[in-house]
Amino acid sequence: MALPYLVGQVKDSGVALAVLLVSLGVRRWMLRRLEGVARENPKSFAGTLREGLGTPSLLWCLVLTVDALLGALDLSPKAERVGHVLVVSFLILSLTMVASTIVTRTLQRYGELHSLPFAVAGLSRTLTQVIVFSLGLVIFLSYLGISPTPLITAFGVGGLAVALALQDTLANIFAGVHILIERPIAVGDFVRLSAEEEGTVSDIGWRTTRLLTGANSTVVIPNKTITSGNLLNYSMPSIEVGAWVPILIALDADVEKAERIALAAALATEGVLAEPAPAFTVDPGMTATHLQYRLSFRVPRQLQAGVIKTQILRRVLEGFRAEGVPLPEVRQR
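Above: the chain's sequence. Below: its structure in token form.
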């Protein structure tokens, strides 16, 4: 009796070992192929797929080996069925998690390459994960023979009650979706709200949007505040923005000389764009006490405007003093 039992054990172990070796071989070949494609084209999907399949694929090889061993062993039909269900459940769960990670990373990389705000925002990652896990749940229920229709109906009835209790939160969620679709702002844009908050958009979440201010602090704003109020986006249609400084001179000053000095100061300042060229215009012109003009120019980004305007004004004042252009005088009563 002992000899046939030992022969059977060796046979069962041989089947499991064969499945393990074959699955590991397929895994190694697949990962090497993905590495080769990723090395030739770093921007391809293969690199993301290789990162996501590294450790999970090894676990899948082990799970397939366990499933093969369960089928080879002399187990009762019920025990074999339970073991098989556990194996498939693990595979579905792990595949869903890996698919969620790969799709999210792919969407984010594609968005960074093509400047798509929907792809790089936090809300898009959350929506992607919800969709992928929902599909995984439907597949798992179908495998168990459970119809997802009653579950969807129950969620619909319960969702109505939740919607009434969370109206403010849902309003912010839909506002976030509206922001990602209509694109009034995007991650990386420098914006200013009607409530005077301004900064660079660091993330668009499922309920709030975060702005990174010039003081290196974060302003958290509800999404519906952005969609319902006035918004100034300095990065649209281009990140280059216009800036200006007031030029005040005395009533008897030489305007042509003042214009020449002001334009030269703007062109000599690092960061001022040559095209379109700086302009010296009336704003509003002659007043009772002085002449007032506007020196307009363009800068690469809104965050640089403050420093550039300071440097231009310093050069203008130095030029006026050097060439004797009089400034307005404060008249005493």
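Confidence is low (pLDDT under 50) at residues 1-10.
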